[in-house]
Design a protein that fits this description.
alpha/beta, three-stranded parallel sheet, Rossmann fold, flat, 67 residues
Length: 67
């Protein structure tokens, strides 16, 4: 069975660390980025099964990325 790959996007390092640790323990492969720009670059170069994103970030909101 293939492991699901999740992209986590948040500008707070402590949130990224917490989510990465939890999702990894639950058996997911996790990639973390800190900005909307980094998230867009990540999805251009890799295929993800899901994304968890902060709605409020300085550069670009999670809603902007979903458009």
């Amino acid at each position: 069975m293939e492991v699901a790959k999740i992209l986590v996007v948040d500008d707070e390092p402590s949130i990224l660390k917490l989510l990465k640790e939890a999702l990894t323990q639950w058996g997911y492969q996790v990639a973390c980025v800190g900005t909307g720009t980094e998230a867009l670059e990540a999805i251009r170069t890799e295929l993800f099964d899901a994304a968890i994103t902060d709605i409020r970030m300085p550069e670009m909101s999670g809603l902007d990325k979903s458009s």
